[in-house]
Specification:
Length: about 270
């Protein structure tokens, strides 16, 4: 029997950038184990990478890959102990004051303080989830450093909350890594992904993130809320009740996840 605990892997924390021992960070918060059963013995990943440049769309799909273990147990060794047990843990605690009753089916008034707490949580969650598959990562170090220094999402991010009754979205995230640019519009084509759209299901909750490090992909937030049946939490919107949002089924939850991504070739050139 090996009585010596395994050594922590040395590397750079994706938030603070400090070198040293890295700890494991759950993609889905471990607190969810009290609220949502981890009854699946495996999970399946589907990978599609999409690039938009100079009016050309390149879609690169791969076959689904099934991995052992429930998705809720998946961890990434990408953050240092100080960040994980410090400010990240504090933000998660504050956000679960609102997340827990919403998962339980209760109505919650999402005022500015609630939206700020949820937006800060989403800034961490989506920054971590984006690193689950590094080749399609669309969040840059500048953005993660901003989250670390300001404890909130960058101003070029859009974050939304929604409701779902879909069993398919009870414990799920879907990530689209993208390259957006045009040599003729003044937005140079980057050498790698510079944007991402990611949607996560937590019980009856949907969180939806759209990010780019340099500009807002969404021009009209109110119209996006209307089209996809969501409420904006970053930028902060007027107070609203969680139960005032429409309830998505599987089809409309998929539309939230994929709708923007597959409409991008038809939007104005600045995208």
């Amino acid at each position: 029997m090996n009585l010596n605990p395994p050594k922590q892997q040395a590397g750079l924390c994706v938030f603070c950038g400090r070198s040293g021992s890295l700890s494991k960070q759950h993609i889905f918060p471990n607190r969810l184990r009290r609220l949502l059963p981890r009854d699946a013995i495996n999970h399946t990943g589907h990978l599609i990478n999409i690039s938009y440049a100079d009016n050309t769309t390149i879609i690169s799909p791969e076959l689904p890959k099934t991995k052992n273990g429930h998705l809720g147990t998946k961890q990434l060794r990408i953050v240092c102990r100080e960040c994980n047990a410090g400010w990240m843990n504090d933000i998660e605690k504050r956000s679960f004051v609102f997340i827990e009753p919403m998962i339980a089916g209760l109505n919650v008034l999402l005022d500015s303080s609630a939206q700020q707490a949820l937006a800060s949580f989403c800034a961490i969650f989506f920054s971590v989830a984006d690193r689950e598959h590094v080749p399609t990562s669309g969040i840059g170090q500048k953005e993660r450093t901003y989250v670390f220094e300001n404890r909130k999402p960058p101003t070029t991010w859009n974050l939304f909350i929604g409701r779902t009754n879909s069993n398919d979205w009870r414990f799920r995230f879907k990530h689209h890594g993208m390259t957006i640019g045009s040599s003729t519009s003044g937005i140079p084509i980057p050498p790698k992904n510079n944007s991402q759209v990611c949607t996560a299901g937590f019980g009856g909750l949907l969180f939806h993130a759209i990010s780019n490090g340099n500009f807002n992909i969404i021009g009209n937030v109110s119209e996006y809320e209307r089209l996809f049946g969501l409420g904006s939490i970053s930028p902060i919107s007027d107070n609203f009740n969680f139960h005032d949002l429409p309830v998505h089924d599987t089809e409309s939850s998929n539309k939230v996840s994929d709708g923007l991504v597959f409409s991008l070739p038809r939007v104005p050139p600045r995208y």
